[in-house]
Amino acid sequence: MKKVFLGLLVFLVNLVSLSAQEVKLNSDGRDQQYVQTILGRSQKIVDGLKLTDESKKQNVLNIIANRYFKLNDIYDKYKAGTDSCNAELYKHHFEFAADLGNYLDESQIEAVKDGLTYGVVPKTYQAHLDMIPSLTDAEKLQILNWLKEAREFAIDAPDSKSKHGWFGKYKGRINNWLSTRGYDLVKEREAWYKRIGK
Question: What is the DSSP letter of 104?
Fold first, then answer.
């Protein structure tokens, strides 16, 4: 019985590793210039991960590129902002991180998400820490969580302007929240600029 169980376990492990081994690039029927543009954009994100395993690199590259293709297909099929478009985006939103999870750890997945959204989360978070040194740990966590929430929407946005638009909304929410907690953001910003000599 032990041997049968062990044999089944080995089979399942091999099956999982085989299914996670090769990610096909979904480039069939697409304009090759567009494909090359997307591959170049995706490659920059992969390069930032500094992966050493060539197979892993290729699979992650294909997952990221396929994500761009999927979003393009959805926006081509539906008008941006419609209920049908939003439902389709939501339907496919979580599969991206899940696919990356076959090859990357959580910090690397975070890096991919930041790569897709111009690094707005770490830059904005650090700016808040620098601007308001008196933030409590709870306030820092709330700011970071809201920025990450904005990033989830930005990942699915069709273009740079829309991606930044999501962050703009959440930055407004953060600023309003900080104001209700007694922070004078104008004074905090002026003091920050003096500290950095701006």
Answer: -
Q: Give the pLDDT confidence of 110-134 residue by residue, as tens digits.
A: 999 999 999 999 999 999 999 999 9
> Considering only CA atoms, which of 114, 112, 70, 75 is closest in space to residue 93?
70
Please, which pLDDT band fits residue 81 given cuts at 50, 70 and 90? confident
Task: Answer whether 59's CB lies under 8 Å from 22's CB.
Answer: yes
CB 42 within 8 Å of CB 61: yes
**Reduced 3-state DSSP string for 79-131:** CCCCHHHHHHHHHHHHHHHHHHCCCCCHHHHHHHHHHHCCCHHHHHHHHHHHH
105 phi, psi to nearest 5 deg: -90, 180
For 70, list phi and psi in degrees, rounded to 5: -60, -45
Residues sharing a CB contact under 8 Å with residue 166, sequence separation 6 or more, in sequence order: 150, 151, 153, 154, 157
Number of Cβ atoms within 10 Å of the Cβ of 122? 13
How many contiguous H segments (helices) and E segments (strands) does the chain have?
9, 0
Alpha carbon distance 198, 190 (integer Å): 9
